[in-house]
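Backbone shape codes:
===
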Amino acid sequence: MANLENKLTWQNFGFEVRYHVHDREYGIRDRHAHDGFYELVVVRSGSATHVHDGVKSHIESGDVYLIPPGEPHYYANARQLGIYNVLFTGDFFAGLLAEFPGAPDIEAYLGLSGGALPEGHRADVRRFDPELFFRITALLDEIVEEETQELSGARLMILSNALKILTLICRHARKSAERNIGSAGYRIASLVKTLEADFAGEWSLRRMAEHTGFSVACFRRQFRRIIGEPPVAWLLSLRLEKAAMMLQTGDGSIAETAEACGFPDSNYFTRMFHRRFGATPRAYRLGLRRRTGGADVV
């Protein structure tokens, strides 16, 4: 695998992942293209109309599509559209795929083997199954983190995840005609992933509904149907679980823990915590300290 070594330098890496949220009115004046780069777009949340080569496609959480180098496209009617832009050169994968079995499938998807994309390929929006959706977004989040931290071995981690992502898409992503899974599941799944990462944020019922693109009434009904409990109750449980974890492992005060978990009112936090765990936060922590021999932090 001597050829692989030449690709593992930042100067010639030819690969980058960006994450951006679009939430305004776009139009033809916002057309853009990436000369010399393919753009693989993975929709994490929200929805929009994607216009590419005169073809309009509705896109939403769980979708993925490929834009060839230099081809202009834009979004319209974007509503909390959170997307990963996976940018890479043809050389990045063309030189690497020969080293791995199963490369023809990926080459065909990228149009590398014949030098051009198949007819109609540019409008090919595919969809992930829910399990694959979480796996793909987790791999993309790892890439973004590696690009930010630039730790030793980062390019190896990025390369590994990049090849996994493309292989999983080629194997499992459904074509648009086969997208038979209701979009509600993807919208709720995307919100849950966002809430787990931003559990302390100011999340009203209306804001959660807007994130999914549902009306408040429809959102409440869909969330309960899919998750099994009301959204506000679920978020409260998530915050209390995070608080309990912080009390076990952290040294912050009770008030600091409450605020870090989305409870600006420490008295309300104490009442809810006691209702959930049968003890006040301080008593909960004292019990842990006595069992482990640690010092008390009020």
Observations:
- The CA atoms of residues 184 and 222 lie 7 Å apart.
- Strands lie at 15-22, 38-52, 55-60, 63-67, 73-88, 126-127, 174-175.
- Confidence is low (pLDDT under 50) at residues 1-10, 114-123, 176-182.
